[in-house]
Structures are given as structure tokens and as C-alpha cells.
Amino acid sequence: xxxxxxxxxxxxxxxxxxxxxxxxxxxxxxxxxxxxxxxxxxxxxxxxxxxxxxxxxxxxxxxxxxxxxxxxxxxxxxxxxxxxxxxxxxxxxxxxxxxxxxxxxxxxxxxxxxxxxxxxxxxxxxxxxxxxxxxxxxxxxxxxxxxxxxxxxxxxxxxxxxxxxxxxxxxxxxxxxxxxxxxxxxxxxxxxxxxxxxxxxxxxxxxxxxxxxxxxxxxxxxxxxxxxxxxxxxxxxxxxxxxxxxxxxxxxxxxxxxxxxxxxxxxxxxxxxxxxxxxxxxxxxxxxxxxxxxxxxxxxxxxxxxxxxxxxxxxxxxxxxxxxxxxxxxxxxxxxxxxxxxxxxxx
Length: 347
Known about the structure:
six-stranded parallel beta sheet, elongated, alpha/beta, about 350 residues, 3 domains, six-stranded mixed beta sheet, Rossmann fold
């Protein structure tokens, strides 16, 4: 408040009145003070005294999207534990670059909480720096960011399990369907899964082929669009590693639109342990989402109680679950079947 007053050339009392919307300050002066307060990331809160003692009883959970199984399952697991600890959860959905940019610009206003949990949130470098303005503990669930306490699956091991499974089945031309939120962001799971994909192929003496790695914006059509691009190659892959189970299920749907099926024409493996993986017969790498959520919530409860976090870094080992969507390499190639439809037929 003293910094705002100095910049505005007024008293601290004037700043206080202006930010609390009480009489005694002219409108031009009030507007100038609010502008300077925003520039300096200053937020006045009637709960400031309780905030200084970390006693708001609230936790902010920031999630890219709520309508995606991984995020909703993680959120539900965290909320259940925190509710049992008599803590309220404030949910902030920041879907895409515009919403995320707005959230980080207004980030100081989120100080009215005891802790902030980021669920696998991709961030830009400047957004990452604004996290320091919070003044409360940041915990990352389902990923890793700087040196913040975090819980995640070993995403490098995820890719190694998936791709080595396909290699063991005899596949040598293996594609990958990636996804992204916004180009330029750091998404630790994508970085590690991509690294594991290339490393597994290299260990089998297979060099990188950029054509076999396709990237689609995150959405319900990502899998179908990705598999359509891969199968349109002059020499298509015989197997595909998808970033998530939802993308893998979309890829299976894309196969059906072409009159093809897994694993006869293309083996498909996903990641997550989604409840729909079993009825779709999808081979998947389970990452223990519920377990990750419980670990993250435990970190939060320690922070709120003023206790040290016993394990600030928790990395879970993934588990491969083999189902009918993957099978041995066959002589018949996916390219040999004439398409029964394109991407439009899968929607």
C-alpha cells in the first residue's frame, strides 16, 4: 500500500479509501490508484489478517479443462480428501491461451486461499513467473513445474512401456499422436512421453521419422484426425501410441470410419486407465490418477496446517494393461484396405 501511495503521490489512507470504495477520494484519483495497484499486483482483502496466518480454509485448484476425464478424475479425488479435512475448494478452469492468460494476469487476486493446486497445467514462461506473486504454496498434480512440490506418473516410463510393448509384438513402424493446449507452453508430460517414444525406438535400432508423429489440438476429434493423417502416408504405421485413452478411443473410431479395425489393421495403445478403456478393449498404460490425487491433497493439508511436506516429490510407476486393441504384426498393411470414409464419417 505504501508503494502505491508513493507512486500516486497520495497518503496511505487515501489509497486505502480508494481501494475499499469509501467516500473521500475523487474519481480521477481513485482511477489512478486502481491502475497503479493493478500494475504493482496489489490486492487489498478484508481477510488479510486471516490470510497472513494461512487460515482462510480455502484451496484454489486450477485445471485446463473439467470436461476431460483425467482432469475431472484428479479434481474429484483432490476435492474428496480436502472436504474430509474441512477445506473448501475453489475451482478455476482455464481452457486455452486466452483464459489462462487472463487468469495469470489476475493471479494476485487469488491470494485469498491457503494453497494453489495446478492440475497438469501447461504454462508459458511469463505465466510461470507470475506464480511467485501468490505468496502461498503452489502444488502441482499430474505434472512438474520448477521446484514446486508435485506428484506425477513417470511419463518417460509410460512411453517406454507402451512402445516396447508394440516392439515386442513385432511392430517397427510405430506412430505417435500427440496433443497440445497452446504452442510454446511447457507441458512436462508431453515432453517426457515424446522422449520415451523416441528412446524406445532408438533402442530397437529405429531412427526418428517425423512423418510418424502427428499433433492435434486437444479435443474429441484429435484421435480420429491423427489416425487419418497417419494412415494417409505412403507407408503408414502398423501401430500407434496415443497421448491419452480418449485420443486412442478416437483413433479406434477413425479406423472404423475407414472400414478398418484394431489390431488387424493397426494396433493402438493409450495412456490413463480411463474407465472406457476396458469396454473398448483398449490396451492402456495406467497412471494411477486417484493415487496422484490423494498424494496432492495430502501435500495441501500439510501446508494448511503449517507442517512440512514429508515427500515434496512423488513419482508413481505406470502399469501396462494389455487388451485386444494391440496384437502381433500382420502381413496385411493398413494402407491395403480402401477407405470406407474419411474423417467426416467419424463425426
